Amino acid sequence: MANLDGAKTNLIINYLPQTLSDEDFRSMFLSIGPIKSCKIIRDKNTLYSYGFGFVDYQSPGDAARAITTLNGLSMENKRIKVAYARPNDENSKGANLYVCNLPKHYREEELMDQFQKYGSIVQTRVLVNQVTGQSKGVGFVLFHKKCDAESAMADMDGKTPPGGDQPFSIKFADDNAKKVRPPPGSQNFQHPAYSQGPRFPYSGGMGNHGPMRNPGNRFRYNPMGGGAGNFGNNYGNYNNGYGSGMGGSGMMGQQNQGHILFVYNIGYDADEKTLWQLFAPLGTVQKVNVIMDHAKSQCKGYGFVTMTNYDEAQHAIDCLNGYVFNGKQLSVSFKS
DNA sequence: TTATATT
């Protein structure tokens, strides 16, 4: 719902500790003043905290004071962030532009200069090669309002900026977590589980944890897509969390909450597809999560994979921990 | 090198 007042009273709280209870969350923010509502955003089934929440104060003054008082507060080796929430209306969604063919000398400032005449900009970002620092010629312009983003795109798409030698190509940016694009080098990507050669360190010598054990159970994960190496987009349909080994009668509708793996060094271009490709062939994957730096529209280089069955999770560790993927050595372990 | 930026 669009509410003008909400812009002044409604706060988003980021970087909440996983263990923070709803009660403690409420008390902490009630200490500033009366609130209309508050909630920690959690997984519907498991109640696992997503690490952020909302607090809507009755008075704008208390909201402002909550920011002053509580932003940056240390809680269990994290620092919470308290800021105004974006208004939850259509005009603020989809206001992020993806701009290609930037002149190579462009940084955030030059991008800002070119686009700020269309409206108020939250942030600009230019992607650079992590090693050389060279611009990739690609960036993001996030406007406060979608209509400003639309005007900017209409006017600037196909135009060559002063000092540039190519016309801008402008699109709306994808949702961070949902974009499906082949990871770099995926044309040659060969899953370690299918390898028989020595370049995949964990493909042999693992006894009955060898990668191809129980092969008849391996390919149930992609009803839409075609086969291994050709992944469809409907990842959400792979399974429902009721994995094998759940027994029947005694569970009373509870579901196996799965085993969470920490996967480090997946690269800054990784997305959810990357993790599905790596893990789905090794067992039942409930969900994957690539941790994004939302300010940069980039992966932070790690993610989490929840697998239903313990033995398959251990198998995935055996296969993938230490495996060199896109030139980086993966680290795969049970989440601590 | 162990989480989550829009309900």
From TrEMBL:
Pfam family, one: RRM_1
Matching Gene3D superfamilies: 3.30.70.330
Keywords: Repeat, RNA-binding
UniProt keyword Repeat, yes or no: yes
GO molecular function ontology, one term from the record: mRNA binding
InterPro entries in the cross-refs: ELAD_HU_SF, Euk_RNA-bind_prot, Hud_Sxl_RNA, Nucleotide-bd_a/b_plait_sf, RBD_domain_sf, RRM_dom, RRM_euk-type
UniProt record, GO biological process: negative regulation of gene expression; positive regulation of signal transduction
Cellular component GO terms held in the UniProt record: cytoplasm; ribonucleoprotein complex
The keyword Repeat belongs to this UniProt entry's keyword annotation: yes
Domain RRM: 9-87, 95-175, 259-336
SMART domains tied to this protein: RRM, RRM_1
NCBIfam families reported for this sequence: ELAV_HUD_SF (TIGR01661)
Family: Belongs to the RRM elav family.
PANTHER family in the record: OS02G0815200 PROTEIN, RRM DOMAIN-CONTAINING PROTEIN
Name of the featured protein: RRM domain-containing protein
Species annotation: Pinctada imbricata
